[in-house]
Design brief:
Layout: E1 26-35, E2 42-51, E3 57-66, E4 72-81, E5 87-96, E6 102-111, E7 117-126, E8 132-142, E9 145-154, E10 158-167, E11 172-180, E12 183-191, E13 197-198
Antiparallel strand pairs: 1-2, 2-3, 3-4, 4-5, 5-6, 6-7, 7-8, 8-9, 9-10, 10-11, 11-12, 12-13
Length: 201
C-alpha cells in the first residue's frame, strides 16, 4: 500500500485568524486518536494555537496514520505571525511503505517586517535497500542582495551544492562544490553589474 499525501496532508491555508476567536488571547490545544474497527489501522492528530499581545499568533498541527501492515505516514504544518508584521510558515510530510521504501518532503518560508524573505523546500527518498537521494533549494532576498542555492545528493554519488549571491549593486558570485569519494572540487566565478566576468575578491 502506498499512502497518498492527501491521506495525511495538513494545509497551510488555515488562517491564523481561525486559530482562536479574534477577541481571545491565550492558547488552545487538542489531541485525537482513532482506531478503525476490525482492523489494526490507527490515526492520530494534534493541533495547537495561540494568540498573544500586539498581534502575535500561531497555529500548528500534526496528523499520523498507519494501516497496521507496515504503511505509515505523518504530516505537520504551522504558521506564525510576529508583532511587527513578520510571518513564517512551514510544512512537511513523511511516509513509509511496507516494502521499506520511504519519502519525505518539507519546506518553509518567512518574511520580515522590512520585506526581507527566505524560503526553502526539499525532498528525500529511499528504496528500502540502502539507496537514498535528496535535493533542497533555498532562496533569500533582502536589501543587501539575494541568495539562491541548491544541494543534491545520492548514495554512492556524493553531493553537489551550487550557490549564487547577488549584491544590491548588481555584482554577483556563482560557485559550485562537489563532494565524492574521489575528493572535493570547487569552482567559482564573479561578474560585475553588467554581467562581465571579473576577478573574485
Amino acid at each position: 500500500m502506498n499512502m497518498p499525501v492527501t491521506a495525511v496532508g495538513l494545509t497551510l491555508t488555515l488562517a491564523l485568524g481561525a486559530a482562536m476567536p479574534a477577541a481571545a488571547a491565550g492558547r488552545s490545544e487538542a489531541r485525537n486518536l482513532w482506531a478503525q474497527a476490525n482492523t489494526t489501522a490507527v490515526a492520530g492528530s494534534h493541533r495547537a494555537a495561540f494568540r498573544g499581545p500586539r498581534g502575535t499568533a500561531g497555529i500548528h498541527g500534526r496528523r499520523t496514520v498507519a494501516d497496521g501492515q507496515g504503511d505509515a505516514a505523518t504530516a505537520s504544518a504551522g504558521a506564525w505571525r510576529g508583532p511587527h508584521g513578520g510571518a513564517a510558515a512551514r510544512g512537511g510530510e513523511t511516509s513509509r511503505s511496507s516494502d521499506g521504501s520511504w519519502q519525505h518532503q518539507s519546506g518553509f518560508a518567512a518574511r520580515g517586517a522590512e520585506g526581507d524573505s527566505v524560503s526553502s523546500h526539499g525532498s528525500a527518498s529511499g528504496d528500502g535497500n540502502g539507496h537514498a537521494s535528496f535535493a533542497r533549494e533555498t532562496d533569500a532576498h533582502g536589501v543587501r542582495g539575494s541568495y539562491a542555492g541548491s544541494t543534491t545528493g545520492a548514495s554512492g554519488q556524493g553531493l553537489t551544492h551550487t550557490s549564487q549571491l547577488t549584491g544590491a549593486d548588481g555584482r554577483s558570485y556563482l560557485g559550485e562544490t562537489s563532494i565524492s569519494k574521489s575528493g572535493i572540487t570547487h569552482t567559482g566565478s564573479c561578474s560585475n553589474a553588467a554581467g562581465q566576468a571579473v576577478s573574485c575578491p
